[in-house]
Amino acid sequence: MNNNKKPLRITISCCNHLFGEGLKKLLREECNLRADSIITVSTNPREITKEKNDLLITDFNTLAGIIFDDISEKHKVRILLLGTGCLPKIENECLISFISRGLAGILSPETDLPLLKKAIECILSGELWFENKQLLEIIPGIKGKSCSKGPSLTNREIEVVKLICNGSSNKEIKKTLNISEQAVKSHLSRIYKKTGVSDRLQLALYAINSSVFVMDQRCRRDLRSK
To answer: Is the pTM of this model over 0.70?
Structure first.
């Protein structure tokens, strides 16, 4: 173990301080975080920008009040949004904006402890945590075509991008495509290089904004049936 590794910083910021303290206790006792993890609770959106957090767990009202320009581009925090029954509908344009600013996942109101643990693990490892339909509604497509405005991806790379946008982990991609996990990492490395991104979050955003991906109706139906 590298003793020089910086401690993991997590901030829980929501309108209800008592709820935040309860979630902090749950993370400490149930989520198997590193012993040196620093977990803070705040109800002030402006305080969030003062620390270089690795993960921000927040509700919609707090998220909407964050001044993202105050967050250093060199240390973009990954954001997990707490879904509630009263969560307002997030329009596509708004969701795209939040993703571009670090939103890496949304917890549904029905999320239980095992799913919470998995969501945090996925996001901290650089993966995304969205329901398929949330991204399917805003990602214009995943079937490649030639386009001078974007890179030329192989059919296999397009499959990998599709699965990334579908929220799949490396192990799930390995199983779906029947390839080794090292092959998955190699594909991702080439995709990142071609598209000029550095992680899954940026790749999903790239897919949202790029005209390189075109989804036909049959493909969309196939994904929605999963």
So the answer is: no
Alpha helices in the chain (DSSP H): 17-30, 45-48, 60-65, 92-100, 113-124, 132-136, 155-165, 170-177, 181-195, 200-209, 217-224
Instruction: Report helix, strand or coil for 135.
Output: helix
Three-state DSSP class for residue 69:
helix
Separation between Cα atoms, residue 176 and residue 168, nearest integer Å: 9
- DSSP H or E stretch at residue 104: strand 103-107
pLDDT digits (tens, 9 = 90+) for 159-197: 898 888 777 889 889 999 999 999 999 999 999 988 888
Pairing of strands 38-42, 9-13: parallel
- Which CATH topology does 143-224 take? Arc Repressor Mutant, subunit A (1.10.10)
69-124 residue pLDDT tens: 555 454 567 889 888 766 556 665 666 677 777 788 888 888 889 989 989 988 88
What is the DSSP-derived secondary structure letter of residue 59? -
CATH superfamily of the 9-129 domain? Response regulator (3.40.50.2300)
Helix (H, G, I), strand (E, B) or coil at 9: strand
